[in-house]
């Protein structure tokens, strides 16, 4: 029998995990639904063009926060001695135990979150498209762009975010997984602080590097993996500095994918050390 990976054995392991943790998972689902509904009350009450433009931020901000917390909840079991022993001594390979965490907190979360967001978005779109606008609101809509109806978020022309947002989103799960597996005590606050420190450090490195290269231009925006925006001296002209496309996005995605793979490998060997 394959001692590295067996689909039937992994299926039994997954079923057992879902059965043993169904209360926690259902509670998490209920909390996520509540957060999305509260957020919808804020993001779907504006003009159609505002809703279409801002719900992308709603999708990512809620998703980042919920993904961070949910990943911590799934890894936290390994930080308690008795519960971790029960998990690590299950009749499964080390790869299967790691894949279980990856599937539940990674693929599983994304699938459930996107399905849930689609349902909430459908309700929000239905509300926006069926609203009776006042004459003042109709006048404002005509002045802005004349858009009265919007489509579901996955059909919107504004669906695809910038490349650096996608890369940072892809890095979120492996960063959290590796961090929470390394930090045993107070993993949630320490992990939060470490991620903030990494982001702030990346920002300042980018800021001072771009500032030194493009002086005397004033650096306006330079998030990690983002194309920097600068303001030209003695003028009100702003410029975005980037490599020719698609080279710029290829470098971003290549960097992100390399980081994702390395972080997952680190997390796997950290879990392997826990079992030893």
Describe the structure.
The protein has 276 residues and is mainly alpha-helical. The protein has two domains: 1-153, no CATH class; 161-276, no CATH class. The protein has nine helices and three strands. The protein has a three-stranded antiparallel β-sheet, covered by helices on one side. A hairpin with a 7-residue loop joins strand 1 (218-221) and strand 2. The chain is globular, with a radius of gyration of 23 Å.
Topology, element by element:
Layout (H helix, E strand, L loop, with lengths): L6 H14 L1 H22 L4 H28 L5 H8 L5 H36 L5 H10 L18 H20 L4 H28 L3 E4 L7 E3 L6 E3 L6 H29 L1
Antiparallel strand pairs: 1-2, 2-3
Helix pairs in contact: 2-3, 2-5, 3-5, 3-7, 7-8, 7-9
Write down how many β-strands occur, each being a DSSP E stretch of 2 or more residues.
Answer: 3
Give me the secondary-structure category: mainly alpha
Report the end-to-end length measured between terminal Cα atoms.
22 Å
- Name the shape in a single word: globular
- Quick check: average pLDDT? 85
Beta-strand content bin: under 5%
The gyration radius over C-alpha positions equals 23 Å
Instruction: State the low-pLDDT regions, or none.
Output: none
The H/E string reads: HHHHHHHHEEEH
């Amino acid at each position: 029998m394959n001692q590295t990976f067996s689909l039937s054995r992994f299926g039994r392991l997954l079923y057992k995990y879902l059965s043993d943790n169904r209360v926690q998972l259902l509670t998490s689902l209920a909390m996520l639904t509540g957060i999305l509904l509260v957020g919808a009350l804020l993001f779907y009450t504006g003009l159609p063009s505002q809703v279409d433009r801002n719900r992308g931020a709603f999708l990512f901000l809620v998703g980042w926060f919920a993904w961070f917390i949910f990943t911590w909840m799934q890894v936290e079991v390994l930080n308690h001695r008795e519960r971790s022993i029960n998990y690590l001594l299950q009749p499964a390979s080390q790869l299967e135990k790691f894949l279980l965490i990856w599937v539940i907190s990674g693929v599983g979360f994304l699938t459930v979150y996107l399905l849930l967001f689609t349902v909430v978005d459908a309700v929000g779109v239905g509300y926006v498209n069926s609203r009776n606008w006042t004459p003042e609101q109709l006048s404002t809509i005509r002045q802005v762009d004349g858009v009265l109806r919007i489509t579901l978020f996955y059909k919107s022309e504004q669906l695809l975010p910038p490349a650096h947002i996608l890369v940072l989103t892809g890095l979120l799960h492996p960063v959290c997984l590796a961090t929470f597996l390394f930090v045993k005590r107070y993993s949630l606050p320490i992990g939060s602080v470490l991620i903030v420190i990494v982001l702030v450090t990346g920002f300042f490195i980018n800021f001072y590097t771009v500032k030194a290269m493009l002086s005397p231009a004033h650096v306006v925006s330079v998030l990690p993996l983002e194309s920097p925006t600068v303001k030209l001296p003695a003028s009100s002209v702003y410029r975005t500095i980037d490599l020719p496309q698609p080279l710029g996005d290829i470098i971003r995605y290549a960097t992100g994918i390399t980081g994702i793979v390395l972080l997952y490998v680190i997390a796997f060997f950290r879990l392997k050390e826990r079992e030893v």
